[in-house]
Design a protein that fits this description.
single chain, mainly alpha, 3 strands, binds zinc ion
């Protein structure tokens, strides 16, 4: 993995889905972490987070560690880990001591966009017409809060029919086609 090789957050999430051959939801963030040789640490074991923090990334002797607040729900943890992966893959700047990234609004925003687009890829939701926050939360195993953010964005994308304009997105949907077809046939049976 070439850290920081991705530029914009949306494209980065597509590259990540493609590079890690993710072809079904919910996206297994832990497998992306392990394949990238990043070490995942529960904060209850290491106690490195400040009270209000959900997660952070440490760079020590060339190794990356993601620390996450495992006291939070699994859904929150998944988003936290995806957010930290966003900082890593987007090549955000570390603090001088390697304990966490330099916090700027732009960096936090793009890490959130990366996490949202990674965990709830718009083209897959579009194909399945999974558009409400409750459904998105279930399918993608993310919090209702994160799913609401996604659902609002989906409404805009659906209105503009803004899909498949980028070759990476066309590649992502191809990768998910089996999952999409299976889900579609399941929902027909259920009727
Ligand atoms: Zn952050």
């Amino acid at each position: 993995m070439n850290y920081g090789c991705y530029k914009n957050a949306r494209n980065a999430s597509w590259c990540c889905l493609i590079d890690y051959k993710i072809d079904k939801l919910p996206v297994k963030v832990s497998s992306i972490v392990h394949k990238s040789e990043i070490i995942l640490l529960k904060n209850s074991n290491v106690n490195l987070l400040k009270d209000e923090e959900s997660g952070t990334t440490l760079m020590q002797k060339g190794k990356l560690y993601i620390v996450y607040s495992d006291k939070q729900s699994v859904r929150r943890c998944r988003f936290t880990i995806a957010h930290e992966l966003g900082h890593i893959f987007l090549g955000h700047m570390f603090q001088a001591d390697g304990n966490g990234f330099v916090t700027t609004d732009a960096a936090e925003h793009s890490a959130n966009v990366f996490a949202r687009d990674l965990l709830a890829p718009a083209c897959v939701l579009h194909e399945l017409q999974i558009l409400t926050a409750a459904e998105i939360s279930m399918l993608c195993n993310i919090s209702l809060e994160a799913a609401t953010y996604r659902a609002n964005r989906m409404q805009e994308l659906e209105k503009r029919n803004a899909f498949y304009k980028h070759p990476l997105e066309r590649e992502v949907v191809k990768q998910f086609i089996e999952f999409i077809n299976k889900k579609k046939s399941q929902s027909q049976v259920e009727l």
